[in-house]
Fold each of these.
Amino acid sequence: MVANFLIGLREGLEAALVVGILVAHLVRTGRRDLLLRVWVGVAAAVLVSLAAGAALTFGPRGLSFEAQEAIGGSLSIVAVGFVTWMIFWMARTARHLQGELEGRMVGAVERGGWSLVVLAALAVGREGLETALFLWAAAEATGSSTQPLTGGVLGIVVAVVLGAFVYRGAVHLDLRRFFTWTGALLVVVAAGVLSYGVHDLQEAGILPGLDAVAFDVSSSVPPGSWYGTLLKGTVNFSPRTTWLELIAWLTYLVPVLTLFVLRVRRPGGSRGDHGQGATTTSSSSTPTHAMS
């Protein structure tokens, strides 16, 4: 639940900041008459994301066990790829996010019609689809339960509230630290999802080594215990781990986390991108003022 809350919070806040940038630009330029088109685009993105989540949840049902495991494992690996790209994309382009979105906004306003709706839908829909895919993969890794969904929804709700407060200037949020810490934690979560995806592919018979166990601490960390559940829900720890799962976990975690740390510590990276003003001022200014 904690990992899914983190996913919902980070992705939801990114989407909220994007919407804030679009809305603030229209308000600042005196084009409030176009706000409805932004909200129509946002609504369309939410509906598409919900439809994608429903398709992922109910689509594989009725298939054989091997087919379900193959689909689950493959989509888990795809989800890890998406979240990794998202983490580094935000670290690389956060400084230019406001200018990029406002530039697209100007073009959309000039073209008129549905261009503004499409812009809002694409900007928010990307975050929504990534959230749906990664939440589904994380839920699959921790087992069928309402807790992963509850955690993700709570994270999104908190993100929306925070985004609204940031836009209004009621909350000063250090975006640099937020995206740095959540990015590092998501790398750890993604490593666990990748390991679980490999396990699924082993159970489907696509990858070998299902019986080649690296360690089995089930007696010390029972899967049904509170601490076993906590480890499973946060970092997808499996008491019985195969060598291939362990290799996949280490091969992903060590280089990706190292590259991420080097990226955010590099001058002009995440540290410089968000600057010390990663707080917002008033409702008439863009909520991600520090990104400009």
Amino acid sequence: MIRLTAALAIFLASSVVWAQSASPALERIRNNKTITIGYRTDALPFSYVDQTKQPAGYSVDLCKRVAASIGRQVKIQPLAIKWVATTSQNRLELVQKRQIDMECGSTTATLSRMAQVDFSSPIFVDTTGLLVRRSNSASNFAAMAGKRIAVIAGTTNQRALETAMTRQAVKATVVTVKNREEAVAALEAGSIDAFAGDKVLLHGLARKVKDPSQYGVMDEDLGFEPYAIALPHDDAAMRLAVNRALSEIYSSTVIADIFRAAFGRDAQPTQALLIMYGIASYPE
């Protein structure tokens, strides 16, 4: 019996070592004493470049905390962070090629994307909406019939827009753009009537246009957008380390500080977001 117990202890100990070394991402992070994080420069208030030319925003602050937790988990403190700017076009490719260890922006987790990369627990929930010119007098999506609506090509927002058009039989012209800057320029020039995107991001854009009084975000929701951190495929240990960090954050008052720093001291999380925080606060 003693021999059996000793053998079991040795097996379990070796299993732990194997599990730790079976993570390419964690092994690379441990060896380099650095974690490489992708971020967006144009996804205010989630991920952007602040006045000091440094990455900032809700997702960036959250990932800084995640990085600190991973540093504790792999026993490398302090763990350095290497920031890599990404775009909506190359963010998942960089994760796929393991050029970044995680992508922290405003990326929606979808089933099709899960064929390319893994995702953490959700970090935010939002919906697709429309930023519109007030002169159009469009109070709901049905009133957008015959209008020109811009959307960033290949995004979940495009899918939500086209699905809503089919569902509500709204015949509008979809204009694909490369980024938010191009969409805002077209909106201000009058060549489009609306821009479809994540609602929180649209509220941020509405404050940055030349004449904010001329634009508004439509109340109607077109589609559900669960944001998550994109991670390398087939690396369960890395995903567990990130989810453990998120669970720690969601279970503390830290998440309230991160939320208010990004959205304002008077901002309140939606009921859906509070539920998401609760569900992702896993017990050990």
Amino acid sequence: MPQFEYFVILAEMRTGSNLLEAYLNESPAIRCEGEAFNPAFVAYPKDDDLHGFSRAARDADPLALLATFRAQDRLAGFRYFHDHDPRVFEPFMRDPRCAKIVLTRNPVDSYVSLKIARATQQWRLGDVKNKRAAQVVFDPAEFAEHVAQLQGFQIRVQQLLQTTGQTAFHIGYEDIKDLDVINGLLAWLGIGQPLENAPRKLKRQNPEPLEEKLVNPEAVSEGIARLDRFNLARTPSFEPRQPPPLWAFRACRNLPLVYAPIPGGNERAVFAWMAMADGGAMRDLLSDFTPAGWRDWQRSHPRHIAFTVLRHPLERAHDVFVHQVVLGNRSNVRSFIERVHGAALPEDEAGARALSPDAHRQGFLGFLDFVRANLAGQTALPTRPVWASQTRLIEAMVAQCPVHRMLRADQLSRELPAMAGELGHDLPPFDPALRDPALSLAAIHDRALEVAGRAAYGRDYEMLGFGDWAAE
């Protein structure tokens, strides 16, 4: 049995957290102390002090208040909702000494209950004679947003529990009044003395059937139909996350401009343009940032613009295939293509230029098949940034550098100089400096390549808005 020093009830409004708190507080060994980190108040709406902390003192140092829960004579805890102070969330979630109680309720019931509470301004019911009633309108779009909010918080909780190797006690709204369940929770918390009686102070506020609470009960079906409860529409992704590529950033010394390159693009042409704009050489651009050095640059350029460049997935993949596999040193990828697809690849530029269109197409199809399998975790080779999806790479870079501009590679001649207005500085024209490729995508492009490209980089096509390459 784990030795807990404090606890948290992870819940949402109208999930029964007041009632669960009342049950737990029937035990002399426990004290649940309200919504300790609610931004609007401390613990309870009419209170402004908890463990010696006023609202101002708590807001100034929420972790200090969190530490006081471990020092109480009884097992102390609090209720935490998704919109409470985010500064304490990871500290208590990562602390194995903190017991996690996850309280959930049918989202239709919680949504309707929330609407009624807002309409009547009655958030707790102690005496039935004081009950306020109201019928409310069910808004399908608002309900969908309500569910997304609940699910988002539950996913965060679940992920931290899994990654830290912890377990939680899960309890549903309907189980709160079951003394056997409550006593099971007490035993899990390490409280040996079970409850014999339920609290009498709180009553269920809206026991009527759902239809009687709504002005438009027929809208519930539409609201539920909007939901994708099983994530069937989600594009699955097993591609591993990439680390933040801080080392790859290039920043100007003078201009407040930083480029977060996506590997597999025409980076050197962009570096040359940045150096010209900054009045120096490419070697003068700042790179190989440490976290401290990157923060220093941001502070010294508070109004900076960060940009990256997107390429069509098929064009980017073809360049990687040519320069990294055919003309480069990716021998392990070459071996996969030759072994699985029976394609004999040339080993130098002369051989590449002499490659027949059919052999070229077969080799590139093999590479796209390798990428599809690699990003799905089906090969023994690690996923390299140069062929990782642009979507994953952008997710990694924004952890260190929120990107203000995502420019298209085929529009750089217009979009790079156009940033002059925001930078307040004249910018030179951009020269893509393209060279004659050893192998041309245009020479082999067909529908089969488009299908293979989408199979490999489906999220890039979908999330970054790319169409077929021929139309770009």
Amino acid sequence: MNIKEDRKKVVIVVMTANMLLDFAGPSDVFTNANNILQSVQGVAGYEVLIVAPTANRKVVAATGVEIHCPYSVMDITTPIDTLIIAGNDFRESSVESFREFYQWLSKINVSNTRRIGSVCGGAFTLAKAGLLDGKKVTTHWDLSERLKKEYPLVQVNANHFFTNDGNIYSSAGVSSGIDLSLAMVEEDFGKDVAIRVARKLVFYLSRPGFQTQFGNLLPVYESENIAKKIQNWLNEHLHESLDVSRMAGHMNMSTRNFTRVFHKETGMPPAKFIEKVRVEKARKYLEDTDISLERIAEQCGLGNLVSMRRTFLRHLMTTPSDYRRVFRTALKDAGIEDLLIHPGIEDGNTV
């Protein structure tokens, strides 16, 4: 038996100006799976090829590290089992150097590649090649709005760590490439092998694809946007009863006009915006303080514990207690609680 020919060929394209983990994470998953399969089951696993998108085979990571790949993507002429695009180079100066790569990518289809995946900004690369039209995909939460705008035919869901639609697989940022790769190993060789790989990497196998990325619920608005103008005032009054008429009054606008302008400039009704502001503030308390959940619910206007829990599940797909356990900061003794509860106090003085 020719072990190399029987292996599933995994080609990972390392895009320039990206994080090392974008490609190193998936590479380590498949390589370790291959080792486990050979040692435990004595079967062929994966042939992992790290390739550059340019003919010179050199990639410069965001850290400045130069990576000299053994192959250029154009060297790959035989069928591929799994193609993964790790990241994307958004610099205008790189467009010309990728021309040959995109010509190669345009020829990828189900007849020569069983499975196509992306990590983080790699979704943009696949979208540019027309491979994501009509497909449900995810990407890093900070890039999701840009992906929607530049490629309106792509169905973007930024909440997922990873997802798949047919033979198209996509993952969010950085470590989620490991999540996706573990899911692929489980799909190919079963859960037991995937668990062994996860243990080897000291990584979770059970982080589900539908779990939210925990990105900001609200985008960064321009200074002239009505949401930006009212957001600071809202943060100071979250513990109070807030409704559209009160928001409109603060802006010296009629309720009807305020609602119309707000929805036009933010794409959401005022009530939904208020709820997201409340959740964002609660997240900050959970990350940076030891304040009780009851007190946080009160401070943020989220009602009682049951109400806050339901709101968190709706927006973040996790509970407040689980969120605190995952994202608790080391700043708990830095006096940050007083600053959060009393934002007008700094270094003991009123400002």
